[in-house]
Amino acid sequence: MRRPSILKVSAGRARRHPTRVQVSLVSCALLLLSGCVKNTPQGYLQPEGPIARKADSLWDITFLIAAVIFVIVQGLLIFAMIRFRERPGHEARQFHGNTKVEIILTVIPALILAGLAVPTVSTVLALGKKPTGDVLEIKVIARQFWWEYQYGDLGVVTANEMHVPVDTPVYLTLEGDDVIHSFWIPKLTGKQDVVPGQVNTMQFEAERPGKKYLGQCTEYCGLSHANMRILVYTHTQSEFDSWVDEQREPAAKPQSALAREGERIFLEEQLPAGGQCISCHAVQGTDAQGTIAPDLTHFASRETFAGAMFDNTPENLAAWLRDPPAVKPGAKMPSYGLTEDQIEALIAYLGGLD
Ligand code: CUA
């Protein structure tokens, strides 16, 4: 008598709770559908600018051909499964090989690939060439885990946040000396690896001023690979020119007693755990000329810091200065054991570097 009642209980449970298979199927479907979301910050399905569109049109051609082949192959497969299914009284013809079919199935893909090679090679060559005319050249240096941008001709050095004018081709040369990274601003351009010991190039051209584009390192490069972000700000030519003028200025002099104390710590103090700020950082117009960490001359003009991971606020800066690797795994800047007073003074100093 007891057995049936147990069965009833377990059957009731099974109806109320979805099975693991159902949960997995729904999760997979949701994951798949998330790819259809329109216009996400890093969505590459709505390319912007002539260069991104050129690369995108190549993808469109390839995808169209692949889709047609997929439908034909799957159609033939389904047709064969139904037409030649096992039936009583029918026996499959036994044979081995068919030279004519094999030649056709080799020649057709070869022709398709050869045809695709024409637009592919011409687009790859065109995108790899340095644009002619008015070009903005920026040297990108990838480091664990942030980006340095050197505007050679303009005398500007900044980090993580790239500023560009619209309607001007931007030609990037990418270098690095630690591990392989990859530079990607999905809406504006394709990916390009940054390989130690090698100079790679890429280009993009923005067309809408006043926009902020999000990018990301796309080659696994260590603990904070995911925290190596890229921001691109677009400007009209005159806005860009004023940005350049501001960035070329030497650092602002500290205005308060606290900021002056911060500058003194930054330039002179041996930090509690050993080491000095100026061994790594530069602030133009002072003795700080370090080159292995971000140039902080106009630190306060940036919206973010540490690989564009944190908003540039006093609270975030305090947490960072207390113990950088605690808030950003793998950060190369160690904890210097700064006192709260030293942190407060440094924040006052850095906050004045606009
Ligand atoms: Cu740099 Cu991933």
Written overview of the protein:
By secondary structure, the protein is an alpha+beta fold. 40% of the residues lie in helices and 16% in strands. The chain is built from nine helices and twelve strands. A five-stranded mixed sheet has the order 3-2-1-5-8. A three-stranded mixed sheet has the order 4-10-9. A two-stranded antiparallel ribbon has the order 6-7. Helix 7 packs across helix 9 (340-351). The model is unreliable at 4-12 (pLDDT under 50). The structure holds dinuclear copper ion (CUA). Residues 142, 145, 181, 217, 219-221, 225, 228 line the site of dinuclear copper ion.
What characteristics describe this protein?
single chain; 354 residues; alpha+beta; three-stranded mixed sheet; binds dinuclear copper ion
Contiguous low-pLDDT stretches (5 residues minimum) are 4-12
Largest sheet: 5 strands, mixed
Give the SSE string: HHHHEEEEEEEEEEHHEEHHH
List the ions, cofactors and other small molecules found in this model.
dinuclear copper ion
Number of strands: 12
Helicity level: 40-55%
Content-based structural category: alpha+beta
Rg calc: 29 Å
In DSSP terms (H or I, runs of 4 or more residues), the helix count works out at 9
Terminal CA distance reads 82 Å
Give the mean pLDDT: 91
User: What order do the strands of the largest sheet run in, or round the barrel if closed?
Assistant: 3-2-1-5-8
Instruction: Characterize the overall form.
Output: elongated
In what range is the share of β-strand residues? 15-25%
